[in-house]
Amino acid sequence: MSINKYEDFVGYVANVFEEAGYSVDRDVSRGGRCRIDVDFLAEKECKKYCVEVKATQVREEVVNKICHIAKENEMIPVVVTTKEIDENSRKKLQEKYPEVLLIDIANLKFAVQSRTDLYNELIASLSYVVDDIEPKE
Predict the structure, then answer these.
(1) Is the pLDDT of residue 98 over 50?
(2) Is 130 exposed, middle or buried (0-12, 13-18, 19+ CB in 10 A)?
(3) Average pLDDT over residues 90-110
(4) Pairing, β 40-44 against β 76-81
(5) In what order do the strands lie in the sheet with 47-54?
(6) Residues in Cβ contact with 39 at an 8 Å cutoff, skipping those fewer than 6 apart
């Protein structure tokens, strides 16, 4: 995925959060005890989330980083990936980092399945076919 396409995908994910009723802040270059180095912040029902979007498989270093940032800033960590997270990897990451919300392509497909416009935009933004990936809540 090219840089421009990646930035567009981050914007797409932020839009999905907004459509789900979250307020989204893409201007996250703020100071504090820990510099917030994430793609965007989201808030809903008095809960704050720091969101990192990846166009690659989710690595433990990424989850560790977002969990550290979230803890320092009293937020819930979220990692969104354009790839599918296999159940074994998901289980290992959730056991080590129970606070993180992992959203993969199957979860994204589920989130937008009733919105044809968002679903079509998701499919068009990917460089691979996802027809064989079943949506998962």
Answers:
(1) yes
(2) middle
(3) 97
(4) unpaired
(5) 23-25, 40-44, 47-54, 76-81, 101-103
(6) 10, 13, 14, 26, 28, 51, 52, 53
